[in-house]
Amino acid sequence: MQKKRDESKLQKAAAQLTDAKTMYDELNNELSEELPSLYDSRVRTIISFYEAIYKTEYSFYQQLEKMNEDLYDAMEKLAVEDSRGTYFSRRSITPSITSSLPPSPGGIDLSPEKDMKTHSVEPCKFLKRS
């Protein structure tokens, strides 16, 4: 009775072995056929990748060149206007400094209009010349 069980187990194992061998052979043949073409396609993939990078970089530098030309033209125009005296800034020449300053600690007036001669500053001992 036990021999029958062992024989049936052996037959099942042999059937599984043949199924595994056929599956292995099929996969191995399929890979043997497809791998060389996949290996050869790597060159085309790399070439297309570098072409895309080159085209993007080329476009970037063309745009940069155009911007540099526009900037150079604007600088030349400003230089000509400045030499003629016809250039006028759109900003006010004397911006309000005190409006952007936060209130000073201790109530000290930090405005630039204050007369700075009223403050006395003692020179540092290390800087005194004898």
Describe this protein's structure:
This protein is an all-alpha fold. It is built from one helix and no strands. Residues 126-130 have low confidence and may be disordered.
CA-based gyration radius: 43 Å
Uncertain regions spanning at least 5 consecutive residues: 126-130
Give me the count of strands: 0
Note the run of SSEs as H and E.
Answer: H
Rough shape?
rod-shaped
Binned strand content: under 5%
Structure annotation, total helices: 1
User: Structural class, please?
Assistant: mainly alpha
Question: What is the share of helical residues?
Answer: 55-70%
Distance between the termini: 122 Å
Please describe the biggest sheet, giving its number of strands, its sense, and whether it closes into a barrel: none
**Average pLDDT reading:** 79
Characteristic terms for this protein:
single chain; 130 residues; disordered C terminus; rod-shaped; mainly alpha
SSE arrangement:
Blueprint: H1 2-84
Compact description:
With 130 residues, the chain is mostly helical. It has one helix at residues 2-84.
